[in-house]
Amino acid sequence: MRTHAQSEPSVALYVHWPFCRSKCPYCDFNSHVRERIDQTRFAAALRRELATEAAALGRRPLRSIFFGGGTPSLMDPQTTADLIADARALFDAEPNLEITLEANPTSVEAGALAAFAQAGVNRISLGVQSLDDAALRFLGREHSATQAVAALETARRLFGRLSFDLIYARPGQTLAAWRSELDTALTLVSDHLSLYQLTIEPGTVFEGAARRGLFALPDEDASAALYEQTATVAARHGLAAYEVSNYARPGCESRHNLGYWRYQDYIGIGPGAHGRLTRADGLHATRRHRAPEPWAERVERTGSGTTHDDLLSQQDCAREMLLMGLRLDEGIDGTHFAARTGMALEDALDPAILRAALEEDYLAWSIAPASTRLRATPSGRLRLEALLGALVL
Amino acid sequence: MTDTPLSLIRNFSIIAHIDHGKSTLADRLIQACGALTAREMTNQVLDNMDIERERGITIKAQTVRLTYPAKDGNTYVLNLMDTPGHVDFAYEVSRSLAACEGSLLVVDASQGVEAQTLANVYQAIDANHEIVPILNKIDLPAAEPERVRAQIEDVIGIPADDAVGISAKTGLNIEGVLEALVTRLPPPTGDATAPLQALLVDSWYDAYLGVIILVRIMQGRLKRGDKIRMMASGAVYAVDQVGVFAPRMVPVDDLGPGEMGYINAAIKTVADCNVGDTITDDRRPATQALAGFKPSIPVVWCGLYPIDADDFEKLRDSLSKLRLNDASFHYEAETSAALGFGFRCGFLGLLHLEIIQERLSREFNLDLIATAPSVVYRLYRTNGGMEELHNPADMPDSSLIEKVEEPWINATIMVPDDYLGPVLSLCSERRGIQKDLTYVGNRAMAVYRLPLNEVVFDFYDRLKSISRGYASFDYQMDDYQESDLVRISILVNQEPVDALSFIAHRSAAESRGRSICAKLKELIPRQLFKIAIQAAIGSRVIARETIGALSKDVTAKCYGGDISRKRKLLEKQKEGKKRMRQFGKVEIPQSAFLAALKMD
């Protein structure tokens, strides 16, 4: 293994597989439904784009790999294996490299899990979304609660680490119903859960339906109560809210996602993938073409599907680091902040709002011998968007 | 047309209540005299502004020159000055009346005389006008021409035996009106050889021609190429064009005594054209100026603020253009902590205020916030000084005040007797003192003395709703009287919202303070921190409300690496803050104050 200068920060790798069998009514991610997917073509394009990016960056330490989508479990497992092998060859992988794959708990996909484990995936994130069949139908999911439980059993045998997603604060969901669903969920998984409140995103099927009054989300107060109960129930099972929507037993956090929230470098390949990369002149934001076929065509022609590669200003960096870092329970380390943005943490914040938010117990300083951290308290995280809007200069 | 002998000229205006048919009659007269072809006629030719047509009211005086071949074999020139019917535009009315020798009084034969008609008729009588009563809508089944004729004699006190019965809508007996004009109104007087004296009746800004001046020639002649002098400002201009409205602008060689027309003289300085000024010949000036108009005094003031702070200069520019066209309206720059930079504007009344606001939004495309209207108070300081106060924010500490006087009005309300009870209670609720109560048929006429302060505060709306729209209302300024007035400040997180402070009688202070606090609690969305809303007189809090902090505002999901999207959302949020005002640690959307002001 080569040694590295301080100026070569570690990277994480995100691989976007843009295809789904069907579009879920709540989802606004970059996902596309195709009758037939040219697996060979997209596999080759992803590998080529990775090689191009690695050539530009040079050898750097690799922290984690994440296959997201879309539905990456629809990818040929061989492609996963090839990309993992390429990444290990092109970068210096850290020991115990975390390699996560998102998968749907249908029986077909559960059947392919063994092949992904074989390919090198060591952490699985299942899109369970609910353990209630009526709710699964409402959410447009293709699996049943029974299939989800079966897929979790299979996954537990195959992978060292396991997480799944649930969507709550659904129309009409009561505190009691959610408590019981969450209790069940916490008996099925012991180290990590992503618990998202249902939000209505622009351009989704749900947006139109909500506008026509076909359903309504819980109001602000009900939604706050559901959120607070979630943290309480998770804590009783030993899972801490380490981020706004993510709960883990200490040490079992998603290292890949922590990289985003800690505002570290990451490469994003595949259609619509985003990246944050330190280059010679500073931190760059990169973005690939969103549409799968034009992306592949670009990669085939030039080696890369990049449409944007912009140098971020100091203010942009400071804003982004605050937006991400205050989502984390650990908050932001003042020294890291200054090193990453070239700006003192206090200089990026409105002093009057900072003072008021500290008084109101929305924010707290934690001062340890080696670091001074600013963190949003649970009560501050509950109002994080409004807080950031006022606080961040 | 310039050689018309004085004996063949008639200058007249039309006085009527809203909807009694003034503009329709004007249209018929124009049509009957063939000034416009049928194709060119749109309803209400003289009401140029969109607002005038939509609301069916006249705001600006307009003029048109008609030629009429009368039964006596002579062809007459008839100059019509259209006048506004609403009390707020009394100033416009006085200008129109000063340019004419007679008036048509149009009364709806099915409705009778209304409050607003009275003031204008009395003004015409004061101006020595010959008045010809016209009974309109006599074709309607509900018409009672005999009763209305009697009412004109009883209420107004002018003979109505030979009132002309017509239907402006169907054109019935328009000939009768034209004959009455020729036979009953006096011709103008004047000497064509005397030095020029022309009354500056109106002026406005035309996008193509620049400043246009409307004049009535009293003495002498005015022709193209003349050097004219504004007697008040002393400014001298060469006349590029003289003409008449027929009703389109038609250039003529010159204008003689008794005639009305326009002047275009490439005038750049708007301030030189004072309405009511006398225009004379620079080489052979008149020794004396004409008696001008009674100057207009604003009685209602409010602050106007652009919603977009960047529009401040545009607002200044628009106000100066409007002022050229409407000399009765006043403005001066002011600053509000809650609303930013704006103008304190004075109006002749509430309708005038509404019209100006609407013109600013329509003709100049401005989005504005108006603060609650205030009247002009007389403030006597303990040190002996007296000042006029029209912005509640300027009211000093009570220890510096000896006394405050407020303006009172004489209000005339006409209402069918079915609704009289609620109308009388409304007046006494508003501190009114009854002076007279009489009946004409089943309509009552109540005369009250009322503090104007109570009238600018939703009086019209209440009157309209309790009388189902049947009450008509008019007022004249009366005098000032000492009163127990206090300033109520509205505080958000201990900081005063200057735009919401108001002056009220002590007896009404607490209930109005409470209602504004309750309203704000409804209108201000929950914020990051809790908000205290208070109403206070000096340091004494008389009402309070609390808005709790918002309980949840966080996006559950932060998708993968798309931080750019989150940053863009933050930037959008910050952009939105330009519309917010800071009160301590909370920022409150301007729209909440706007809504609070709108509900007043």
Automatic annotation (TrEMBL), chain A:
GO biological process terms on file: porphyrin-containing compound biosynthetic process
Keyword Iron part of the UniProt annotation: yes
Cofactor: [4Fe-4S] cluster
Entry keyword set: 4Fe-4S, Chaperone, Cytoplasm, Heme, Iron, Iron-sulfur, Metal-binding, S-adenosyl-L-methionine
Localization annotation: Cytoplasm
InterPro entries attached to this UniProt entry: Aldolase_TIM, Coproporphyrinogen-III_oxidase, Elp3/MiaA/NifB-like_rSAM, HemN_C, HemW-like, rSAM, rSAM_sf
One Pfam family linked to the record: Radical_SAM
CC per GO annotation: cytoplasm
Gene3D superfamilies xrefs: Aldolase class I (3.20.20.70)
GO molecular function: 4 iron, 4 sulfur cluster binding; coproporphyrinogen oxidase activity; metal ion binding
Keyword Iron-sulfur: yes
Domain annotation Radical SAM core: ranges: 5-240
NCBIfam families according to UniProt: hemN_rel (TIGR00539)
Function according to Swiss-Prot or TrEMBL: Probably acts as a heme chaperone, transferring heme to an unknown acceptor. Binds one molecule of heme per monomer, possibly covalently. Binds 1 [4Fe-4S] cluster. The cluster is coordinated with 3 cysteines and an exchangeable S-adenosyl-L-methionine.
Family of this protein: Belongs to the anaerobic coproporphyrinogen-III oxidase family. HemW subfamily.
The protein, known as: Heme chaperone HemW
Source organism of the structure: Ameyamaea chiangmaiensis
Lineage: Bacteria, Pseudomonadati, Pseudomonadota, Alphaproteobacteria, Acetobacterales
Automatic annotation (TrEMBL), chain B:
Major location (coarse): membrane
Enzyme Commission number, as recorded: 3.6.5.n1
Cell compartment(s), UniProt: Cell membrane
A cellular-component GO term for this protein: plasma membrane
Residues annotated as binding GTP: 19-24, 136-139
GO process annotations (BP): positive regulation of translation
Similarity remark: Belongs to the GTP-binding elongation factor family. LepA subfamily.
Role: Required for accurate and efficient protein synthesis under certain stress conditions. May act as a fidelity factor of the translation reaction, by catalyzing a one-codon backward translocation of tRNAs on improperly translocated ribosomes. Back-translocation proceeds from a post-translocation (POST) complex to a pre-translocation (PRE) complex, thus giving elongation factor G a second chance to translocate the tRNAs correctly. Binds to ribosomes in a GTP-dependent manner.
Protein name: Elongation factor 4
